[in-house]
Amino acid sequence: VISLEVTGTPLQAYVEAPQLVRDLDWVTRDWPSERRDATCADNSWPKVQRYVLMGVEGAYSDWHIDFAGSSVYYHVIWGQKTFLFAPPTPRNLAAYKAWCSSTRQDFDWLGDHLHGLTRVDIRPGETMLIPSGWLHCVYTPQNTLVVGGNFLTDWNVATQWKLVGIEDATKVPKKFRFPHLKRLSWYVASGWNRRLSGMDRDETDEDRERILSSAQVEALVDVVPPKKVLEGIELVCQSLADDLELMQDEFILESGDERAVKQQKAAREAVPTHHVGSLAKAEAMLGELKERLERAMRVADQVDAARQGLASKACQNGNRAASPRKARR
């Protein structure tokens, strides 16, 4: 049993993701809390963080990547699990994509086509974090009870979107995909547009070329995230801009392309108009976000350097505070 998610049941009180997961998780951070209430009229949101997994001795789950390249936390309560992992390199992902589309899955073991295999055994009391996009298969040596969950992060958007593309190409059914991903992307974009509002200021061409002072850079440390995060949010922004273009294409209905019509409808239904407003307002919000991202990217290297300097200084101060004082004679 690998799909028993207990959010909204009495078991929810007994299962909570690690703090690290809750800090990074898009759903926890950006999906409005009032839209995650069981009493809410629209109680459709990604419930993927509290799985209770039961496996009998001898069970085996074949090679897979968790939906949308999501990361995973995995805690064994009793029993044991044995994993084989392979990193999401271009070669491994190409082999995986070909295998998923193949009719040979019943007798062609994907592990024979992968490189960098790593075995991990997990026992009671141990918690494992599976990075985004890592391929894995799972063997159950003895009856096992596990709790775990999935989460998407700003740090792994490139890998997550790559896996969504593979799911599209291999026609993975909707019920096996990350739920409400498009709507979640709108909430993430809206959240970052708000968090980056500290970048707003009137700029001249001369301002754009000017190197910021140390004080100006340090003031942005809590506003501008690391460059990799900015690059990930740019990908989110671009995917939503593509969806807006699809929604506004007047010729799709006339074309008779059933697949395109379904995609257009799904894109429209995913927009949380109660949160971002009309399509025109959603488009304006994305425009704001794009401008704020561009400003943040211009100073990202300086801010990253300042952040590392502050962290190094804090570490040195901590070491000095922890050092025992020399005894006085």
Give your account of this protein's structure.
- By secondary structure, this protein is an alpha+beta fold.
- 45% of the residues lie in helices and 16% in strands.
- The chain is built from 12 helices and 7 strands.
- It has helices spanning 19-24, 26-30, 90-100, 157-169, 181-195, 205-209, 214-219, 227-247, 252-255, 258-270, 273-276, 279-322, and strands at 4-5, 51-55, 60-64, 71-86, 118-122, 127-130, 135-151.
- Strands 1, 2, 3, 4, 5, 6 and 7 form a 7-stranded antiparallel sheet that branches.
- Helix 8 (227-247) packs across helix 10 (258-270).
- The longest helix has 44 residues, at 279-322.
- The chain starts with a strand and ends in a 7-residue tail after the last helix.
- 26% of the residues are buried.
- The model has no long low-confidence stretch (mean pLDDT 90).
